[in-house]
Known about the structure:
Helix 2 packs across helix 3. The protein is an alpha/beta fold. Strand 11, helix 6 and strand 12 form a beta-alpha-beta unit. The protein has nine helices and 15 strands. 25% of the residues lie in helices and 26% in strands.
Amino acid sequence: MTDTPTPPATAREWHLLSRPVGWPEPENFALVEAEVRTPGEGQVLVRNEYLSVDPYMRGRMSAAKSYVAPYELGKAMQGGAVGEVVASNAEGISVGDHVLHFLGWREYAVVDAKTAVEVDPQAAPLSAYLGVLGMTGLTAYAGLLRTASFKEGDSVFVSGAAGAVGSQVGQIAKLKGASRVIGSAGSDEKVKLLTEEYGFDAAFNYKNGPVSEQLRAAAPDGVDVYFDNVGGDHLEAAIGSLNRDGRIAVCGAISVYNNTEPAPGPRNLARLIQTRGRIEGFLVGDHYDLQPQFVQEVGAWVRSGELKYRETVVEGIENNLEAFLGVLRGDNTGKMIVKL
């Protein structure tokens, strides 16, 4: 093990200065120097090595009441991060250990040890604990298997299928015996990735024509499960192709996150009556009881190479904001990670 460097007196962190209206702008944020504090009782100081940027963070920039508290103005923002412990004032966590925590958007973080999760850099690359083996992976696992009640033989449609969650949903469905897996993505390159690398049976570029028409062509026998990362026209199309007793798990609605007016709802909800269909929203935080089972099952697939994953890595904390905006634009393939 290399010697752990002495922490600096100050380090950089991103603050939210004002709440974005519509698309976030650089003037809503600032990268500032902040004091690196000594950990108090039960705390550790972590030198962050990888930071996560995720679509849900856009919601925390608004003051609207939601399932998680808004970011505070003039204070460091939060998000998933993994790094090395450089000072410890807590039982059970030593200097040199690596931990996963939720004080991202900064170079150094003082973390309550009880909220930190130790991770093993020998078992998987550190960045994997922010994606395929982290919150995004558990989101895919819980949403497909528990919320959508996936069963062997189901036909599955996933939107945002080249993203960190969507790509894992499709592969888990295939590994669990789906009869057909269809994905939508925003570029021809991503469509090719879905069918050639991730093993989707069919995929389409939603920019190439009406989603409902492309979905009907890709799933002529309809779909039993729709995993929704996008909302909007994708949700309406899925309802239109839903089979009897079909299930829709609503994970996200990235197509409307920056809208300043409410998006129109699907116009065909009455179709749920004839299909006896079910739409259910979910949050990964309600399913942490699945974590041990998830890490065991998905970890084995990752090690065997049966489950493939991609990361889009942006270097430097100064580029953290641009990486986040890139996620909203769909620039990433797989999990967007910032490497410090």
